[in-house]
Write a structure and sequence with these properties.
This protein folds into 2 domains: 117 residues, no CATH class; 111 residues. The longest helix has 36 residues. It has a two-stranded antiparallel sheet with strand order 1-2. Helices cover 76% and strands 5% of the residues. It has 233 residues and is mainly alpha-helical.
Length: 233
Amino acid sequence: MTIRYNISVTEELKDIVMADVVLILAFSFTEAGGVGSLAANSKTFMQTLVRFMPIAALAVTLSFVLHEMMHKFVAQHYGAIAGFRTSRNGLMITLITGFFGFLLGIPGATMIYTSSFTKREDGIVSLAGPLTNLAVFAVFLAALLLIAPSQSSYAYIAISYTFFISIFLAFFNMLPIPPLDGSKVLRWNKPVYFATMGVIFVLMVYFTGIPKLTILYMLMMALFFSFFYRTVI
């Protein structure tokens, strides 16, 4: 196995910007309705796309980029070499699914090179990303409550979309499915995992509008998959 011992800052910056731009476009395509809306009314599609793109840029940059950077910084704290890397296939899948009106966002991930991580260190590094999303969610929820803009205003849409994406990303990454963060946190410390996921679950139920049975179903299926995965591997 070839291990990379050096990660160029320039290359990493290029990768994170590329992933950020692709996710912004994909989210904007999805919000505009995808290729179906483009075919039905190209003018409305373009207007929605242009109007929503700054909102997507705010939400993606704060939710996704900060999530990945926190993985990197905590991993470096424990002596690992870490850096964000894009996936060419992941970038294409992200862009194509967004264009068709649904989104599978897998543009890349923070790669960590170490041979000495304990389960605890691996769990803490993994937990750092979702906790960052929780922090972003809290800041934007506070902004929404304190500023209290009109629900039809551009500011309200931008703030509410950002805290929605933040909490959803925290939930998704905490699902206990390898190689998601949740699988490593659960392997390290079950009480920490269930306490963190419990908080995220409550916030998802009360602030996203997603039915709690749907959220619970996703979590139960993920737990079942995690148990099955560990059993057969």
